[in-house]
Amino acid sequence: MARRREALTDLLREHGAERALVYGFDRSGSAVEWLTGWPVTREAALLLRPGERDLLFVCFNNHVPNARRLAPGSDVRPGNASALDAALDALASRADRGTAAPAPSGPGRPRRLGVIGPVPARAGGRLAAAADEIVFLDREYTALRLVKSAEEITWMRAGAAISDDAVAALAAAARPGMTEAECCAALEGAYIAAGGLTHIHYLGVTAMAEPALCVPAQWPSPRCLRAGDVLTCEVSASYRGYPGQLLRTFTIAAPATPLYDDLHRVAAEAFGAMAARLRAGAVAGDLTAAAAEIIIGAGYTIYDDLVHGFGGGYLPPVISRADLESVRTAAPPDRRAPAGNFTFAAGMTVVLQPNVITPDERAGVQTGELVLVTETGWEPLHRYPRGLARIGG
User: Fold this and answer.
1) Across the chain, where does the E strand assignment appear?
2) Which of 186, 202, 213, 288 registers the highest number of CB atoms within 10 A of its CB?
3) pLDDT tens profile 9-36
4) SS3 47
5) pTM (whole model) above 0.85
6) What are phi and psi of 238, to 5 degrees?
7) Count of other CB atoms within 10 angstroms of residue 148
8) Computed over its alpha carbons, how large is the radius of gyration of the chain?
9) In the prediction, which pLDDT does 377 show?
């Protein structure tokens, strides 16, 4: 936590900002938790000034006692109707310096205020009035999250392990007649008692003979599993705010059809081709080109992103379907795009997820997982076996 505070302090100094306002709501806004230990619930707003104790406003008010335990380094106060308004009131009144004397201008008013997080547009007027100049630092904050510390990697291993347990529980439980909601209950039960929390669990079920779904869905349908179905999943269970991410494909009580066999073969080859190129100093465009040669060359495409950073947010590099389809395999990778220019460094954690689909978007598979970039290559953070597996009988 001391290193994080120092890194943000350096960032403020670099941009000439005297203070920072860090905001999150509805469980989003990872900077609040990163700096204080408090996972955002309804709303939280943090005022940070180098050399002084942080001031953290939390909503709902009954969340304050828990926040005081989880964020002992901060002065935690009730946010009342709005944590953001409370923080802006504190800036206007100089309450964050222990006085209620109004100071709309002058020494109590920051010349430059650094802002991180999804501050809503309706607060734009009050935010603009809080300082002589507002500097948004979301991009710079994201850069601080790319390379993980040893402590973060330990927690990410824990998140990966309970995500593995969740997929193992799903594979053991799923069978014909079971609903998608029951599948979700089975996988959640594998990590809740271990102290894990749900980050995401997306499931997709369709008939292999007549497919009508190419990617997992965010909300389970009431459909029951049937013999001959294919089940795809993307599962992230989180430990202390650090989730794993595991993507797998299963057939239900039947062997894979030739189409699904081929889709998964191509996806596995694409994963291997990207993994073979991943190391510190590698360029994201090289991974894109390697995957495109295999996926586009086989007559398929993808729907979800091919690669993305993970851990502290959905991080760079984000390699999209458009990036993949823009590559011409006979030409060098396009390094003009930001994703293509991105250079990996040791300590980054990224998800390789070649979710190969048919061009008509009716059939698709999931495979991939969260990995750690090293100086010489990469290290798996998950232990669940790869491959297209039959379950449920």
Assistant:
1) 19-25, 43-48, 54-59, 74-78, 112-116, 133-136, 197-207, 229-239, 242-243, 246-252, 301-302, 307-310, 314-319, 349-352, 356-357, 368-373, 378-380, 389-391
2) 288
3) 999 999 999 999 999 999 888 999 999 9
4) strand
5) yes
6) -115, 140
7) 20
8) 23
9) 98
